[in-house]
Design goal:
The chain is built from three helices and six strands; from the N terminus they run H-E-E-E-H-E-H-E-E. The chain has about 150 residues and is of the alpha+beta class.
Length: about 150
Amino acid sequence: MTLEITVDEIGDPEFAAAIEEIVDEPAARRGHPFDPVPLHLKAVDADGRLAGGLTAHSVQRWLFVKVLGVTEEQRGSGLGRRLLARAEEIARQRGLVGVYLDTFEFQAPRFYESLGYEECGRLPAHDGAPQRIWFAKTFDIAGVAKAQ
């Protein structure tokens, strides 16, 4: 059998959905459907300007924070902590087991550690590429962050 591998230059959403279905269908048969649920938190200032936000989705009872961003003007104001705290609150309300996310070594590892996140994985720095670090925080059955 001859197969051709090509690059999807346009990011076709139908193609992406078809690939996700290939992965989801057997997982669903085993009782673990993916069924991602998005979460987008938006922070605006008094003038209606974007101050920051968070994009995430939950799947398999975990919330994955894809992006947490705060404008230069808002850095140090506590907005990042507030956004992440709100995401954790929603995760607990949804009955999720915890939150995971990643950052690069030059971004915010100490920030996440200060909020009780523990490192759970790392890609090494290599040939000019910085380390990428994954963090997770699990909740106990009552929905409270576990003591570290």
